[in-house]
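Why does residue order matter? Because the sequence determines the fold. Keep that principle in mind as you read this record.
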Amino acid sequence: MKYKKIRKKIKAVKTSLSEELLSRYYASPLTLAQTMQQIRGFTPRPRELSSRQLYKAVERIRKQGWIEKKIIEDQTFYSLTKQGRFKYLIYQLKTSCKPMSDRATILIFDIPEEKRIYRDFLRRLLIQMKFTQIQKSVLIAPYILPQEFYELLEETKLLQFVKIIEGKIRY
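Structure:
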């Protein structure tokens, strides 16, 4: 009898720790190591990059097509490309969605077969944003969508195929 109580307590502690770890990891832009440090009470410090590391990182994302380099009067400027803005909006969406207690969003979409890639992308993104799938094209979340989501829909020209219902939950 005594062992069963101890096992239950250990299981409860493991479950709560696992849930806390996962919620912190998925809701945070920190790495797993930084999240573990944060749970243990350490404040994660931003890693300082050398100029060489920074240059390599900028060149890597430039080669991926996320930014473009412009040289004007012996000065170098970088700006986001369309693909870079798209990636930025996705990152913002994944990190900024916070559940609200009395607000919810229902999202309904009917995207044609010619835009299947966008439809599948939108479905995957919504599931990553913690939406619950009611049907294949009907999803619900316990929060109001951020402005970046509407910008993303405009960028991908999907706004005309999506209906969004936002409102207050009564109970």
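The radius of gyration is 21 Å.
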